[in-house]
Automatic annotation (TrEMBL):
Organism: Penicillium subrubescens
Cofactor(s), by name: L-ascorbate
Pfam families: 2OG-FeII_Oxy_3
GO molecular function per UniProt: iron ion binding; L-ascorbic acid binding; procollagen-proline 4-dioxygenase activity
Residues of the Fe2OG dioxygenase domain: 171-298
Gene Ontology CC terms: endoplasmic reticulum
Alphabetical keyword list: Dioxygenase, Iron, Membrane, Metal-binding, Oxidoreductase, Transmembrane, Transmembrane helix
Residue ranges of the TM segments: 12-30
Lineage, highest ranks first: Eukaryota, Fungi, Dikarya, Ascomycota, Pezizomycotina
Protein name, UniProt field: Fe2OG dioxygenase domain-containing protein
């Protein structure tokens, strides 16, 4: 029986059926039987891309994270980190998204030191929309300072990494101090941009208060609910304001040395809408904050397969 070569249009039609069937049915079904050692070391975040995962090239050169103006390379922890021994206390506020409150995340001495090294370095804060950076005091009015990586900063980088369980592919961004004078604020925003599928995104945020000599300046999360216990009123605003209105959601009071930690991304890599937050205006005095952002960037895929 003679077989004729299939026509090009027939092959294309087969492919149109086969490719989705492979991606959505065969590949997920076969994957448990053919685990791939490289992908099994990946904790999460790649799942949305796993159907096209062929081979991960984990060589550091492919991470493109050597730019130390953005990322703090994991290049050694100083001996005897100050403040570490004093310990911090952690309180669970929300499970999904994960929101934790950390008392004494930095000691008073560390906070003072960080404020000290930030002086003379402040420039107006910018906002970033995922594409361009601009100064817009109607949205964000504060100054920020990129901190030199001295021993205190390196110890804090290590504390942030340790806190998050030394998660693979997580990189601590260079740290910025942020200073708000009277009327300084940061309108509601997300710290994540939704760019994980394009390479990386901010998995988590530590918002640390370094200086609290101010009125106002609370950190507001309008989409998070007030937790039950009255104990939270030490850290959260429970009182009505002068107009007798309770603010939407929850508002953390600036308390020197304490930190709010939250995860910005869901396990599938998409951003949590509940992490929408703002720095309410400082009405008098000065508030100083410290942003410790953790950048999650899985290694680039090596589609070629060869090394
Ligand atoms: O200062 C605050 O309370 C929040 C700051 C903030 O959200 C940010 O810098 O992204
Ligand atoms: Fe923020």
């Amino acid at each position: 029986m003679a077989y004729s070569t299939p026509k090009l249009s027939t092959i294309i039609t087969w492919l149109l059926y086969f490719v989705p069937v492979y991606i959505f049915v065969l590949d997920p079904l076969l994957r448990p039987y053919f685990p791939d050692s490289a992908s099994s070391s990946l904790s999460w975040g790649e799942d949305q891309d796993r159907h096209v995962l062929e081979e991960w090239d984990t060589s550091p050169s492919t991470l493109h994270l050597t730019d130390d103006s953005f990322i703090s390379p994991d290049d050694g922890v100083p001996d005897n980190c100050p403040g570490e021994a004093e310990g911090y206390r952690v309180h669970l506020l929300s499970q999904a998204p994960l929101v934790l409150y950390i008392e004494n995340f930095v000691s008073a001495a560390e906070a003072d030191h960080l404020v000290e090294i930030s002086l003379n370095k402040y420039t107006p804060s910018i906002i970033y929309n995922g594409k361009t950076q601009q100064i817009d005091p109607s949205k964000r009015l504060s100054d920020r300072a990129l901190l030199d990586r001295d021993d205190t900063v390196r110890c804090l980088e290590n504390r942030a990494r340790t806190f998050q369980g030394w998660r693979p592919h997580l990189y601590i961004e260079r740290m910025w101090a942020q200073r708000y004078n009277a009327s300084g604020h940061y309108r509601h925003h997300y710290d994540w941009t939704g760019s994980l599928a394009r390479g990386g995104d901010r998995l988590s945020t530590f918002m640390v208060y370094l200086g609290d000599e101010c009125e106002g300046g609370g950190t507001n999360f309008p989409r998070l609910g007030m937790p039950g216990g009255r104990e939270w009123c030490r850290f959260l605003e429970c009182e009505e304001d002068e107009q007798g209105t309770v603010k939407e959601g929850i508002t953390f009071k600036p308390i020197k040395g304490n930190a709010i930690f939250w995860e910005n991304l869901r396990p599938d890599g998409t951003g949590y809408p509940e992490t929408w937050h703002a720095a309410y205006p400082v009405t008098s005095g000065t508030k100083v904050g410290l942003n410790i952002w953790s950048w999650y960037q899985p290694p680039k895929r090596n589609r070629g397969g060869g090394r």
